[in-house]
Amino acid sequence: MSRQILSKMWTGMAARRGLVWAAAAIALGGYMFMALAPGSTPMSAQAQTAGETSAASSSFSDSQKSEIETIVRSYLLKNPKLFLEIEQELKKLIAAEEAMEMKKSIAKNADFLFRRTNAPMAGNPQGDIPVVEFFDYNCGYCKRSFKDISDLIAKDPNVKVLLMEYPILSKGSLEASKIALAARNQGKYWELHQALLSYRGGGIDGKVALKLAKDLGLDVAKLKTDMESSEVKEEIEKVQALAQSMGINGTPHFLVGDRNIPGAPKNLLDQIMRNVAELRKEGCNVC
Predict the structure, then answer these.
(1) Is 265 inside a domain boundary?
(2) What is the 3-state secondary structure (H, E, C) of 205-268?
């Protein structure tokens, strides 16, 4: 079953718990149907195609089918915890599928994610383990996680942090990202990045970004010109296309080598540092 199909299934089920129950009934009903089928063998010993299953079902009369349905319904009503167990197992299955697909996507896009010499970055450009962050300057969780990233850089001199400008929350976010990227031409990207994520005066837009840049001593006239360059536009467009292809629909989102950390968990720094240490010990196939 593909990740896309599983994700759609789970989204619908999460919105309407009744669908989880329906899925449970169908799954268990199918199992019992096969178990009750004349001449059938246990599912673990018999792999049937959809056509064979259909043929087996046609061998039952209407009264036999009704009896099977009654047995299945009775069994489910007597064992309602099965619904929760199936729901939990489905969650695990979807998580495993998504993790596998993410690893494949990271490996496929490793050059863009980890090896670009012109990528916005912080920490050690020659660092052995890359940490990637997709972020938006108006994202409250990105602001909260910024301290963790700053502490990571301070604690580990061999980490390379690659910053993916992913302005998805507002027009103001896009304006701020363009100005931040333009600041690279004046060697002040990290300084402006810090100022933008540390700002607590309300929403961030182009006006706020330019004021913060001016306070840092940047040439505002040059920023206004550079922010409209093809280089800045292409960087944002490529990151947006990559994020969408990888199923990254929110910020912040972190990658540590081929490890995936969505959102901003309270123990984010610990998670990142643990993954970094494990990759150094085990080796990173994509770094």
Answers:
(1) yes
(2) CHHHHHHHHHHCCCCHHHHHHHCCCHHHHHHHHHHHHHHHHCCCCCCCEEEECCEEEECCCCCH
